Amino acid sequence: MARFTWALSSSTTDIVILSIFVLFLRSSLFVSAVIGDPSTIILHPPHAGSNRHTMFLPLFPSPPNSSRISSFSGNGKSRRHLQKSDTSRPNARMALHDDLLLHGYYTTRLWIGSPPQKFALIVDTGSTVTYVPCITCEQCGKHQDPKFDPDLSSTYQPVKCNIDCTCDYERKQCVYERQYAEMSSSSGVLGEDIVSFGNRSELSPQRAIFGCENAETGDLYSQHADGIMGLGRGDLSIVDQLVDRGVISDSFSLCYGGMDIGGGAMVLGSVSPPSGMIYAYSDPVRSPYYNIELKELHVAGKRLLLSPSVFDGKHGTVLDSGTTYAYLPEAAFLAFKEAVLKELHTVKQIRGPDPSYNDICFSGAGSDASQLMKIFPKVEMVFGKGHKLTLSPENYLFRHSRVHGAYCLGVFQNGKDPTTLLGGIIVRNTFVMYDREHDKIGFWKTNCSDLWARLHNSGAPSSDMSPSPSPMGTPGHISPGSKVGSIIFYMFLNLKYSKLEPHIIELTELIAKGLHVNISQVYLLDFTWEGNESLTIWSITPPKPDEYMSNTTASNIIARIAEGEIKLPKRFGKYRISNWFIESDPNRTWVKNYMGVMIVFILILIFVMAGVVGWWFWRQKRPGGGILYRPVDSVVYEQELQPV
Questions:
Q1: Half-sphere exposure of 369 toward its Cβ, with a 13 Å CA cutoff?
Q2: 93 by DSSP, 3-state: which?
Q3: Most confident option among 464-473, 580-589, 623-632
Q4: Antiparallel, parallel or unpaired: β 317-319 and 420-422
Q5: Does residue 439 have an active-site annotation?
């Protein structure tokens, strides 16, 4: 859930200092004061400790001593809208990786410096600072990529100390610090360098200010991702910096993959909105984070008997990409839970996977997530002007990690706090456009897992692109707890197959080199051609046939496929990757699992039988073989003479 920190204005100043701490916890909140600042209120989760994935990502619009001027003027009016919307401006189309429920976050790839240094950054709409570990950091954890080394970049410049920022002890360079209520923290210096968005982005590399970490603690220390990419409202936000430079329109979009799938797409800048997009008003003056105007909730077509003011309490309804689940005010949660339970007739309510939480879970729904609509009700969110966004079960359920075919509600009570928090689960397989220019947020249901490839083919998620069906029910995708058997991807080449066939071995070597795998792991499964274009289907397998591939290794390989790291000479023509997916084999048969043991047992049995047969033949070949002799002193019993 999100954590909010407010520095309340006094009677002597009209400057409002706002900050948000984003926290993936799903328990209720209570209020406490920050020591040394009685005007500051922090909303804490009441329970500490959890085995759930949590991230703590703050939103810090620049205070008076920041390195840049605050985007909110003293009269409370926003200073944005300096640039008019222009869809002809380039945008940065970037792939998303990981999975919100499995990893606790989604990441994208960003390159900083000259030559570029690569980083996996968590995308977060509740943070305004982008930061990565610095090479000088001795208190940083071990992350996915090497630390940033300013000395290796010919274009790096420190942000020099000035009256608008907090300076280091020597008053030479601007610094930043992020303190988290659960004791996580990030601190370092501010620098400026060339930032690149990938070799398939229309947006050329741009100079931007970012944080170079010198210390991190808590989950920021232990996370696999390198750092944070801040997408919130604030002058240090990567979005604000690009808008202020006039290189993109004041908009960005996110699209998270569905249940069990992960991945997705992100666009910095505007795209042509598809027809059928549902919009909600977002008030930038009310708060520095992205709120929407939620009026009603419907379950199975029936409106919950709630006043619209229920969703407008305190901070209103906040849409936060850094929050995992959804949290409703008490009255709304109780009504929602009761309405859902009334619609369930074929499942049984069971205990949740974690005894420290009172999860509401159900067994007997089956493992095929595409069939959940037959069991669980449709949910609708109604925005201002009556616009409705339909939520499928994957938008409010998550899989039970210990019971096969069981699911739990991903919507929880927000304690006694009247704030409504809508996390990433709500917008799975939904293209979300943060249109900051026009103070609105758009929603469009689609298959986010392959949207990135479709964006590169068409340039925009327009409705004339027939969205491929949701891949939730298709086999071969990574499920929680499963392992990866292979990665399959489709490669189109602008080359006749008759010219391609002699170079298949070379193409195999180039694919292995680009994906950082051994050539023995790359297999051509099938091919076809039509005219001057060839379609090849490839499989990337684990190093050893009898082993699985770790989810981390598979994610890295898919990232390299998505980012176009397979480099081909000109003689292969242009190529494109149309799709990639996972072949997972979590239900291996007993024979497959114990094949080695069975082979050893059979060999031992053969040797034993051969020994027995050899001994028998040896006995037969001895003199008088087969005739039994008695010792000379043995007793000979008298026998009757038989008549002749």
A1: 26
A2: strand
A3: 580-589
A4: parallel
A5: no
Under the banding of pLDDT at 50, 70 and 90, the label for residue 260 is confident
pLDDT in tens, 152-168: 999 999 999 999 889 99
544 against 342, higher pLDDT: 342
In this prediction, residues 311-338 reach a mean pLDDT of 91
Q: By mean pLDDT, which of 322-331, 375-384, 402-411, 573-582 is the weakest?
A: 573-582
DSSP state of 16: P
Q: Which DSSP string corresponds to 409-428?
A: E-EEE-TT---EEE-GGGGB
The runs of H, that is alpha helices, within 30-162 are 100-103
- Interaxial angle between packed helices 504-515 and 551-562, expressed in degrees from 0 to 180 and rounded to the nearest 10: 120
Q: Which of 98, 99, 124, 219 is catalytic?
A: 124
Residue 433 has pLDDT above 50, yes or no: yes
CA distances from 427 to 307, 329, 440, 534 (A): 24, 19, 16, 36
Distance CA 227, CA 223 (A): 9
Distance CA 198, CA 588 (A): 38
From the list 240, 320, 417, 450, the catalytic residue is 320
Taking 50 as the threshold, does the pLDDT of residue 614 lie above it?
yes
Is 124 a residue of the active site? yes
Q: How far is CA 72 from CA 63, 67, 583, in A?
A: 10, 15, 50
Give how far Cα 628 sits from Cα of 50, 91, 389, 491, 638, Å.
79, 98, 95, 78, 19
Q: How many CA atoms lie within 13 A of 442 on its CB side?
A: 20
Q: Which two tokens stand for residue 209?
A: 């200010």
Instruction: Kindly report the backbone phi and psi dihedral angles of residue 515, in degrees, each rounded to the nearest multiple of 5, phi listed first.
Output: -95, 0
How buried is residue 344: exposed, middle or buried, by Cβ count under 10 Å (0-12/13-18/19+)? middle
Strand partners, 445: 430
From residue 572, how far is each of 494, 513, 526, 529 by CA, in Å? Answer: 7, 16, 18, 14
What's the half-sphere exposure (Cβ side, CA atoms, 13 Å) at 391? Answer: 25
Residue with tokens 């729904």: 365
Residue 250: per-residue pLDDT = 96
Q: The pTM is what? A: 0.65
**Residue pointed to by tokens 């048969």:** 589
The rounded percent of the chain whose pLDDT value lies above 90 is 39
